[in-house]
Every structure is written in structure tokens, then in C-alpha cells.
Amino acid sequence: MPLIAMNREMGSLGKDVAKQLGAALGLKIQHHEIIDHLANRARMRKSHVISFLEGSQGLLERLTTDDIKLRVLTADEIASAAEAAPGVILRGWGATSLLKDVPHCVRVCVSAPRRQRVRRMMHRLGLEDDKAAAAIVDENDRSAQAVMRRHFHVDVRDINEYDVGFNTDRMSVEQCVEKVLEMVNSPQFEETEASHDQLRDVAIMHHVRAALRTHASTSHCWVKVEVTHGRVTLEGVVDGADQKAACGDIAGRIKGVMDVQNRLRTEERRGYRS
């Protein structure tokens, strides 16, 4: 079944593209749905999670929020959504970056020139002042770019991060949808046993990272996790033998893990803290 990850700029009509794709393919669109679950897992207010995901955190939120934990949990939610559904459209939250190694995932960017997006937002918000609309668009762009750089180390406007990019100043929503459908139905993006296994490995990697970050005994460990054919490799430095064993034990409990190669090194009284 199709797996589509989308990123879009404010005023680009990306929401409309996603909606029509969902209708054409009979797929659910995941976007705001992850917020409630994230807030519960991170034990945070929903408003704090939203400000984190949208890059609009205030000073107090930045000082009191565990950004790394939220980033790890966000990635885990995206991976879980991609893995669980027979097909899904994931809009935003870094899905295009997180799923870049999954061969059957179609990664889409929807954009438009700033002047066009400002006009659309004026109409959508009922504004007469183009400067007010421009300020909203510019702030959204800055926040989105900051979030992608900070959490995924990518430039949101780099077309190399996507399989296809659309300029809705030149193409209609219907034309964008038609092109994505062509890609989804092409042999290049067909889901195979190998591509499904790759998605499973990506999901396991994020599941392990999230489990380590949320368990009290390993929450401050800095562990590199790699997964190949369900076999997990842990690398890094931890405080001692007990912590090393805890990391291996937690990783081994994750569904789908076939084996754990625990290559963590120990340094007593010295830990890697984020």
C-alpha cells in the first residue's frame, strides 16, 4: 500500500493536495493526530508539544522542555504510523526526512512563491493588509526551517530531500495529485518484501531509541542505534556495566528485534548527558 510523506509551505495548498490524495487512494492523513499521544508519552502539556513541533517555543518552554526526548518520541510516532497502517499519508513533523531510507515511500514537497502564498493567506484569513499576511507567512517559514535544521539536520527547502517538488503557482492541485499518483503506481515506488523490511528496520531503530530515552535507567545515555534485518547494534559510551546491560535488555524487548549486538563501552563515573 502507498506510503507518502509530505512537507508543505504555508499558503502552498499542500493541505489540499494531501486531502485529494487521501480521497483518491483511500488513505488516512496523519498530522495533528500524533500530538495527543506525544503529549501523553512525554507527560507534557499539549500546547508545549505543538510549540515544539512548530518551532515557536518561548524562553520558558525552551528551558523546561527536554527537546531530545521530544525529538526521539516524535520520530517514534512517525515510524509507528508508517509501520502500522496498510497505507498512510504523513504530513509534516519531519516524516520526509525520517523515512528517506524506505524505498517505497514517496516524499513530496509542495511550495509556491512567497508573493502567491501571501495573497492566499490574505484571502484565507480575511486580511486586507498584505504586510500582516507576509509577517505570518515569514514567521511560519522561519519556524519550519529552524525545526528541520535543529531536529533533522536538513534544509527544508533543499529539493534533494524530496522525490518530487511542486510549485502550485504553476501547477494546480489536481495536477500535483495526478503526478503523485503516477509515482505511487510506478514500479519504482512499489512496496516489496525488501522495502517493507527496510521500513521495519527504520521503525525498530526509532522504537529502541525511544525506549532507551524514556526508561529511567537509560534516559541520559547517548547510544547510537543501527538495525539490519531486525538485528540491533548499540554503540557508544555508558557509565558502567549495569547501564550497558540495561540498554541491551531494553533493546531486546522491542517487538521485531531478532538479536542485540551490545558494543557499548563503559567508563565508570563518566556519562554522556544531553
Q: What key phrases describe this protein's structure?
A:
274 residues, disordered C terminus, alpha/beta, globular, 4-stranded mixed beta sheet
Give a written overview of the molecule:
Helix 2 packs across helix 5, helix 5 (67-84) runs antiparallel to helix 10 (193-214) and helix 7 (114-125) crosses helix 8. It contains 11 helices and 9 strands. The chain is globular and about 65 Å long. With 274 residues, it is of the alpha/beta class. The strands form 2 sheets. Strands 2-3-1-4-5 form a 5-stranded parallel sheet, sandwiched between helices. Strands 6, 7, 8 and 9 form a 4-stranded mixed sheet that branches.
Major sheet description: 5 strands, parallel
**Over all CA atoms, what is the radius of gyration?**
20 Å
Strand fraction: 15-25%
Structural class comes to: alpha/beta
Total number of beta strands:
9
Instruction: Describe the strand arrangement of the main beta sheet, using strand numbers.
Output: 2-3-1-4-5
Average residue pLDDT: 86
Q: Roughly how many Å apart are the termini?
A: 38 Å
Pattern of helices and strands: EHEHHHHEHEHHEHHEEHEE
Which runs of at least 5 residues are low in confidence (pLDDT < 50)? 59-64, 270-274
Shape: globular
**What is the overall number of helices?**
11
